[in-house]
Write a structure and sequence with these properties.
The chain has 18 helices and five strands. By secondary structure, the protein is mostly helical. The chain has a five-stranded parallel sheet with strand order 2-3-1-4-5.
């Protein structure tokens, strides 16, 4: 076994307190600012260490890194909040939130909307290490950015199938669940391992504090770009629409739609590809069962909550329309919300559209519902309203 492989394996996940100590050693910081994150991440760490999670040495390394990364994010952002107190005065007006079931085109649409020069999103490296966004021309000189780019380059080589499903690097705009997890709340963990106690805990939570922390992070990251509109995306926003709207009452929601049979099959495939070799218990059937439960719950929570809000704040996009006419779809969203699609913005959107249709970022993804011990009827029943 090579040294590189050995460094990516561990005999155990370690306790929550052990991971906290590791995060503090890594950052040189000790002040979390609050204990909002502790309950959820402690339950999660215990779950990951249990026989039910069935983690392998490789899985221990991966999942410990995920918990540690959340804790590092809390430490770094609390320090940044204190270093840049002026972030609290940054206004966030009519932010756009793209949401929908996984694999409904949210990533492609998010990147198209973000192309507008007057838009801003969360670049991958800033979701991991939030700070006021530096000028783009300085990123390559930043050691954190360099390290993340090198890591993604290695991941492209090691996991080409995953990159065909969901391309990313340190510069790409990404999902904002990494901000939500700073309060210990993220359903991403349910898509990576069998964590029943954490899942049960999360279902009982009010996410308002998670979105308040989310907003603080946006104020911090966007400190140097206050005139730009935020464009964000995450399927898990469906889980907690009431909390999102409580914190962002003027939010503009773009909801993407696709046949849930296809969505669940594809979502299972993504979870399986992400967690290859991580667990002896998180097998195909478990992935099928837990993904169907997670996303059907989120789907119903969203549709139960939506009627309470102004319909003018919601735009619905069919996946088939997005694929057929991405530029027209963006125009329709701008028109619906009364936004100005300038010639410069249109040219930028068209450039991203061309880029997404070619080269290494073109999608290449195969999946089958039956691989996860599910039938079409199972999915239709779960999503039936």
């Amino acid at each position: 076994m090579s040294d590189n492989v050995m460094t990516r394996e561990r005999p155990d996940v370690g306790s929550y307190d052990d991971i906290v100590a590791a995060a503090q050693r890594t950052t040189g910081l000790t002040d979390f600012g609050s204990d909002l994150h502790e309950e959820g991440l402690r339950i999660l760490a215990d779950d990951l260490a249990s026989p039910e999670a069935g983690l392998t040495p490789r899985g221990n390394y991966f999942h410990r890194s995920e918990v540690k990364s959340a804790l590092v994010g809390v430490l770094l952002t609390h320090a940044a909040f204190q270093r840049f107190p002026e972030h609290a005065d940054v206004a966030i007006d009519r932010p756009i939130f793209v949401m929908g079931l996984p694999r409904t085109g949210t990533t492609a649409l998010h990147r198209l909307l973000h192309a507008d020069p007057m838009a801003q999103g969360l670049e991958m490296w800033l979701t991991q290490y939030p700070q006021p966004r530096p000028p783009r021309e300085t990123w390559e000189d930043d050691p954190i950015f360099q390290a993340m780019q090198q890591g993604f380059a290695a991941h492209h080589v090691a996991s080409p199938d995953f990159m065909g499903i969901h391309y990313m690097d340190a510069t790409t705009v990404e999902e904002c669940w990494r901000l939500l997890r700073q309060t210990g709340k993220s359903n991403s963990y349910e898509s990576l391992a069998q964590v029943p106690r954490y899942t049960e805990w999360l279902q009982r939570q009010d996410w308002t504090d998670a979105y308040a922390r989310h907003r603080q992070n946006l104020q911090l990251v966007g400190l140097n770009d206050p005139e730009k509109r935020w464009v964000l995306k995450n399927p898990s926003h469906m889980t907690a629409l009431d909390a999102l709207m409580a914190v962002y009452p003027d939010a503009l929601v773009v909801h993407t739609h696709r046949d849930p049979v296809v969505c669940i099959a594809s979502s299972c495939s993504l979870s399986a590809e992400t967690t290859v070799g991580h667990s002896t218990t998180y097998d195909a059937a478990t992935i099928g069962r837990t993904q169907l439960d997670l996303w059907s719950r989120s789907y119903h929570a969203y549709h139960d909550a939506r009627p309470a809000y102004d319909d003018a704040q919601f735009a619905d996009v069919a996946f088939a329309d997005l694929v057929r006419d991405p530029i027209g779809t963006v125009r329709g969203i701008y028109d619906h919300f009364g936004l100005d699609l300038t010639p410069e913005a249109l040219a930028a959107v068209e450039a991203i559209d061309r880029e997404q249709k070619q080269g290494g970022k073109a999608p290449s993804h195969r999946y089958d519902l039956a691989d996860y011990d599910l039938t079409e009827d199972d999915v239709r029943r779960a999503f039936d309203r």
